[in-house]
Amino acid sequence: MSFEPLPNIDPDHLHAIDIDALVGPDQPRHPPRILVLYGSLRERSYSRLLSEEAARLLRWFGCEVRTFNPSGLPLPDDADAEHPKVQELRDLAKWSEGMVWVSPERHGAMTGIMKTQIDWIPLALGGVRPTQGKTLAVMEVSGGSQSFNAVNQLRILGRWMRMLTIPNQSSVPKAFNEFDETGRMHLSPLYYRVVDVCEELVKFTWMTRGRSAYLTDRYSERVESAEELSRRVNQATH
Question: Sorting pLDDT into bands at 50, 70 and 90, what band is 164?
Fold first, then answer.
């Protein structure tokens, strides 16, 4: 397998994932499937550039990575679920075993583009829950000083989507200073943190994906019928 260059990596200190330390002999061994979402449509989008850096690292760690382009995704309730971009996003969510969410901070919060993507992913699609038990890493970029507003909001959403959000996270302040003219991230402690987040996400995904059904098994749902459960999680609120 070929990888894109990682010019800011010290190869002596970037370690391959020790799969045997994380999974048992009866657990799945295929490459972890990671979906990356970013929250800006600007031509030079720093959230997209950061997501691309994350994707390069995740591939080096042995993952199969797909990135969703939010251009053309309608607002929730402004189109039906059969819209091609909605179907593309939902299919990727079902395919994935972990996700990376990267949002700019705008007016002290995640962007509407980021929230729209998450809002189009329901808690249940028929009998399938496209996010429950899957891993999640959260990152943000901002134009000013370092902030954690967007990643904190993404964590709340990750919990609501019943995802296993890893402890580490990345916040890149003054993002316009952190990428070169080709869109690659400069070497800095901020870059080191991105590497840390990706490495941790891959470890948690290996460790939990084969056990997610058991980890998310609940007494309250075992006493509900499938029909009752489907009706409850899909009920309209407005």
Answer: very high
For residue 64, give the nearest of 99, 105, 103 by alpha carbon: 99
| pLDDT at 2 (0 to 100) | 61
d(CA 160, CA 108): 21
In this prediction, residues 17-21 reach a mean pLDDT of 95
Contacts (Cβ under 8 Å, ≥6 apart) of 32? 62, 63, 64, 97, 98, 202, 205, 206, 209
CB 141 within 8 A of CB 104: yes
The token pair at 101 is: 């969410």
For the chain, strand residue ranges (E) read 33-38, 64-68, 98-106, 109-110, 135-141, 164-165, 170-172
